[in-house]
Amino acid sequence: MNAFLRAHPWATLSLFVPTIMLALVMLVLPFMNGVLLAFTDASPKSRGFAWVGLENFAYIFEDRDFWEVARNSLTIIVSSTLIAMLLGLALALLFNEGLRGTRLFRTLVFQGWVVPWIAIAVLWGWLFNFDYGIVNHVLVLTGVFDRSANWLADGVLAKIVIISGFVWRIIPFMMITILAALQGVSTELIEAAKIDGASRWQQIRFVYLPHLKPAIIVMILMSTFWTFNNFVYVWLTTGAGPGLYTNVMATEVYIQGFINGRFGYSAATGVVMAAIMTVFGLIYLRIIAERELSEEQS
Amino acid sequence: MSPAFRLGQRLGVGLLGELAIVLGTLLILFVLVYPTAWVIVASFKTPETMFAAGRWQFTLQNYVQLLETGFWRNIVNSMLLCLVSVAISTVLAVNAAYAFSRLRFRAKRTLFASVLFGQTFPWIVLVTPIFILCARVGLLNNPLSMVFVYVAVTLPFSIYLLVGYLRAVPRSLDEAAIIDGATHLQIVWKIVLPIMLPGIVATATYAFLLCWSEYLFALALLTQDEVKTMPLALYAYFGENVTEWGNVMAASALTTLPTLLLFLPLQSRMVSGLSAGSVKQ
Question: Which alpha helices (H) appear in chain A, and where do they start and end?
């Protein structure tokens, strides 16, 4: 089709020029600078810096605290994603039954996805407040706890607080996406299953769920990116504490860089983070890019 | 017979099972809606009755007091910063998305892969280097640096969404225009843009939501009070010992309301754009 473009290859480029320039200055260069920084002992307190080779990385991997931080990240990602997925799936399957008021419910569920993280951090601070939080109130009233728990001062409880916020925020996305995928199931397949005498459960198990598999894989990846990369919610809700209990890799990068003033060490942690995300990113690319680009090449 | 009753029969779980499902669903819905509703409601309660379940005293005092502390300045900062960033980012993204969707060129796969990587990238990794960069060129506490950051951060997602929306625009339209001798830039702005305007509005809304609630880069690059954005100012009301709940709640409501107001009318379009990538087979 593109007679014009074959004659003017620069025309293609011109559509991209501002975008690429900006990406180079604001994303690529800073990232490369961050990688270089990881091999120095740079600090905001001193003007100069020295190259220290792999010292920062060696220190990271010997550091027990780092392994605890990595474990926290893993725990929080896996539990948040799993719980949000299961609840989102359950809600989507239910709404797919064509209940009355589904549209209203969809709106009510989805609103959570646009509530700013900063507001969620404020809310969660209040919901789990020791003195007047509603969670303590309800748990004591129903007899689950015999007295108020100090959620933010207990390591395990603080993790639960963090996970619950992630679940709250991610359920809407899971539900809406699964619902969209469910509506793509051909009615013929379902009719065929009905004629074969499949119960509704069997239809869900053998027709709907296999159809959902690709969407579920992509959503698990998305949820992993969001929880792994999130700094603001964790930092503002628990301040990465108590102790190291809710310190995840994103907060560790910030704490080391801006609180402890160790730019080099912070950058090295960031490089490790970027490396981990690259692995997940490549899986994501394989799934998404193949799908997107195969259509364009036609 | 109510539809809910049919549900129990269809799933073959009986009346008790159906009751459990309905109650469970209502509980989950309540938990999902409650926090958002509460932030709005609490902002209209006096700090004394804010945390009391039964008591309720309506007041606008929280908002009056909040604006008196100079919060209006943060609102203006956030508004200007987000609007300018989103405008620039959307214009750039429309051009790039058009190229991805319609043209063939050698580096397409690599470039599109980097767009997708933008969604998986841990932005926190860039904070220190960008901080150093801005400090070096003297752009700390300058909204200009934030515009650059926000445009760069929103671009990958905007391009990705727009490529999805562009797929629904028939190619025959722009091919006809090419035959008539139109340039690509003309095609983008005169033919493609009007057709995909709803998609562009949805994309711009997403970009706005991203900027509006962004905290990390603002925290690193804006330290002077007069340039701070809403999220930064909001969190400042959490004192070391005393939290000014009246201010906190009014500020939270003012941060949350625009996102809800933007989102509700655009809901179905935003959802379809968002889920397109994951649902497609």
Answer: 3-7, 9-23, 29-37, 55-62, 64-95, 102-110, 117-127, 134-141, 155-182, 187-195, 200-203, 209-229, 232-238, 249-254, 263-296
* Nearest residue in B to A273, CA atom: B122
Q: Which of A262-271, B35-44, B77-86, B177-186 has the lowest mean pLDDT?
A: B177-186
What's the confidence (pLDDT) of residue A162? 96
Torsion of CA B266, B271, B273, B275, to 10 degrees: 180
Mean pLDDT of B199-226: 92
- Contacts for A46 with CB less than 8 Å, ≥ 6 apart: none
Which chain A residue's Cα is nearest to B112? Answer: A289
pLDDT at B281: 40
Contact A180 B279 (CB under 8 A): yes
Q: What is the pLDDT of residue A70?
A: 94
B184 contact residues in A (CB cutoff 8 A): 4-5, 11-12, 15
B37/B237 Cα distance (integer angstroms): 21
Is the confidence at residue B205, as pLDDT, over 60?
yes
Banded model confidence at residue B211, pLDDT cuts 50, 70, 90: very high
Q: In whole angstroms, what is the distance from residue A158 CA to residue A136 CA?
A: 13
- Those residues whose C-beta lies under 8 Å from the C-beta of residue A142, and which sit 6 or more positions away, are none
Closest partner residue to B129 (CB to CB) among A34, A124, A134 is A34
Q: Render pLDDT for A127-167 as a digit per residue (tens, 0 to 9).
A: 998 888 889 988 998 988 888 888 988 999 999 999 999 99
- CB within 8 Å: A285 and B12: no
- What span, in angstroms and rounded, lies between the C-alpha atoms of A137 and A128? 9
Q: Measured between alpha carbons, how far is residue B245 from residues A96, B47, B125 in Å?
A: 41, 6, 33
CA atoms within 13 A on the CB side of B129: 24
How far are the Cα atoms of B35, B236, B256 from residue B251, in angstroms, in the given order? 15, 11, 9
Q: How confident is the model at residue A298 (pLDDT cuts 50, 70, 90)?
A: very low
Q: Do A114 and B215 touch (CB under 8 A)?
A: no
Task: Answer yes or no: do A215 and B277 touch at CB < 8 A.
Answer: no
Q: Which helix (H) or strand (E) holds A142?
A: none
DSSP letter at A40 equals B
The C-alpha angle B192, B193, B194, rounded to 5 degrees, equals: 100
- Running DSSP on this structure, what letter comes out for residue A231? -
Tokens at B162, concatenated: 């727009």
Query: Residue A86 phi/psi, 5° resolution?
Result: -60, -45
Total residue count of chain A as it appears in this document: 298
Distance of CA B60 to the CA centre of its chain: 27
The helix (H) or strand (E) run that includes residue A24 is none
Its ipTM equals 0.87
How distant is the Cα of A88 from the closest Cα of chain B, in angstroms? 10
Q: Using CA atoms in the order A247, A252, A256, A260, what is the torsion angle rounded to 10 degrees?
A: -20
User: In the prediction, which pLDDT does A292 show?
Assistant: 62
